[in-house]
Each structure stands twice: as structure tokens, then as C-alpha cells.
Amino acid sequence: MPIRGDLRAWDGLIRGLDWAYGVEVETHPTDGQGLIRRIELKVRDSGVSGAILVVPRTRHVREFIAASRDLLAAAFPIAGARALELLSAGVDPGGSAVVAIPSRGRVEGRVGT
Predict the structure, then answer these.
(1) Deepest of 25, 68, 71, 77, by most Cβ within 10 A of its Cβ?
(2) pTM higher than 0.70 for the full model?
(3) Residue in 88, 87, 82, 69 with CA at minimum distance from that of residue 109
């Protein structure tokens, strides 16, 4: 974080020529509003273009996403699969996204998968 003394950090950072996305990994999210608030503050304070939220594809996360679907859709408007496609091509995805990573190594980018 560019704020002196701020101990917050992204789990990763993806950069293009004129954009950057913070990567936040959550293994067991429980509070949708709190998670979104924390990520939005990090986006604001770090000056990145948005955030990529990476979650495991587990029953708990599917239930969390179902319960928080409207909040997550507003905060992470870009489909995860589309964001991954654009990022892998070096293109700004145009907004924040949720990416679900199944335990078998495949990457899926739809909320609720």
C-alpha cells in the first residue's frame, strides 16, 4: 500500500501498461459485506483499477456466493472467465471479478460455480 505505515497488502498484483488489479485470495469467506468493504477500501487506497477475488470451489463458498449474490455481482461485475481471458491476453478486463478455483486445478470464473 502506498500509505506510510499501512500494513495491508494484496495477495498478488496483475499489471498492464496503464492498469493494475489487486488479487485477493479468500479460502473461507463468511461476511459478504465485510469482505467487499475491505476489498473496496484496498482498491481505493492502493490506486489499482479493481480487484480479482480468488476463491476455492467448495460447498461452503458456493453457499456463501449464493447468499451474497447481489452484493458480489455489484462489486465484481465482470464474469471471472471473461476477466481471466482478457488478463491472459494482457488486456484490462474493465472491472473487478470473482474467480473460483476448483480443487482439481481447473479455473472457473463464474459467480456461483
Answers:
(1) 68
(2) yes
(3) 82
